[in-house]
Amino acid sequence: MTDLNDDRLPPLGERTPRPSRRDHAGTPLYKQPWVAGLAGITLGLILGLGLAAVADDDSEGAAVGVNEPVETTLPLRTTTTVSALPPECADAIRTAEQSLTLLDQAFQSARRFDVGQLDRMLAELQDVRRSLTERVRTCVERA
After folding, report:
1. Number of structural domains in the chain
2. Global confidence as pTM
3. What is the pLDDT along the chain (143 residues), one digit of tens a residue?
4. Cα–Cα dist 122/107, whole Å
5. 128 in a domain, yes or no?
6. Residue 67 within any structural domain of the chain
7. Does residue 111 lie in a domain region?
C-alpha cells in the first residue's frame, strides 16, 4: 500500500529535510505559532487584571475610613456543662473496644484458616461479651 506523499519523502535512511523559510513566508501572521502564544499570554493578563479590578472594587465597600470610629463587640461568654462520664460507662467502652479488637483478630484467623487460633479467639470473645453485657447494665443503672 502506497502513501500519497511517498514522492515527497526521502529514501529510507536519509534525513528528512527541514522545511525552508520560504514555506513559512507565505503563512499569514495570525497562523504563526509564536503569535498564538503571545495572544494567549496577552488574553490571560487582560482577564487576570480585569478580575483583580473587580475584586478590588468589592473590597473597597467593606473598608473602614481612617477617622471613622470602629465598634467592637466582645463575644458572649457561654458556659457549657460537661457531664462526667461514670467510671462504669468508661469501663464498658473499654471492654467494647477490646471485644472489637478480638473480633478483628478472629476474622483474620478465619481468613488464614487457623482453626486453633480461631477457637481460642472465640472463647475469649465470649468471656469479653459477658463482661461487656454486665458493664453496660451497670452503666445504664448508674446513668
Report:
1. 1
2. 0.36
3. 566 766 777 788 888 877 666 655 667 776 777 777 788 888 888 887 777 777 776 555 555 555 666 666 666 666 666 667 788 888 888 888 888 888 888 888 777 877 888 788 888 888 888 888 888 888 888 76
4. 10
5. yes
6. no
7. yes
